[in-house]
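In this section we walk through a basic example: taking a raw amino acid sequence and producing a predicted 3D structure, encoded as discrete structure tokens. The instruction is simple. Fold the sequence below.
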Amino acid sequence: MANIINGKAISAAIRAELKQETEEFVQQHGFRPGLAVIIVGEDPASQVYVRNKHRACEEVGFYSEVWELPATTTQDELNALVDRLNGDPAIHGILCQLPLPSHLDENEIILRIDPKKDVDAFHPFNVGKIMIGDYSFLPCTPAGVMALLERSDIEIAGKECVVVGRSNIVGKPQAMLLLHAHGTVTVCHSRTKNLAEICRRADILIAAIGKADFFKGDMIKEGAVVIDVGMNRRADGSLTGDVDFASVEPKASYVTPVPGGVGPMTITMLMKNTLTAAKQSVM
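The resulting token sequence is shown next.
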């Protein structure tokens, strides 16, 4: 039976540490770290995420702004808001909730956000810094995965690590972070042959493909650490990850549940990036 990695508990512990660090920062510098979140349109999932980010800011003691823009917002209007926030000394982190309506260019917004305020770590400048291992910010979900491994005392160095998924948001940066931690890393994707065979080699398996219950127990090595980044809805409306928990849990040594595993860590890592940005603003 696997040890269940409790993302809620680990997230709560990190937020308590961030709250204390924030109060020390405020006492020393006289202002609070500030995060601005932009949401365009009325996507229900995005609205939930934005509310959760605002609550997290309140929890750790940040100043927070939420900019809710109509779906009819033009590229010029969105660009102008980003420019305004780039120049606002009270704002240390800027996050534009994706996806944007189809008439808006996500890449243009990613490039427009000041890299020093890019707390999502999506700007090519920050992506390049992650590649060479000299970074200030990390993409929030991969950073959350690394925190879960670290706080569960799971050794990465020398381990066979398999990342399934190659997105710019999770898969690619996750592979780099595991490599920086001295793991031996394989990245799999939709064109990978013999996927199950490769997964069975993994000491640490990161599942990030967005397919409900895809990874079964027969794809897992006995005693593997299994981190489920997926968040999917079954036909009955229940949440599940990319991992078939019932068949994988008996074989794994550690496994993250969905919900309650990686999910709570993502916004917590956003808070950590924002505090880092505020600290760098006074250096």
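Looking at the output, two observations stand out. The mean pLDDT is 97. Residues 30-116 form a domain with the Rossmann fold fold (CATH 3.40.50.10860). In the next section we compare this with other chains.
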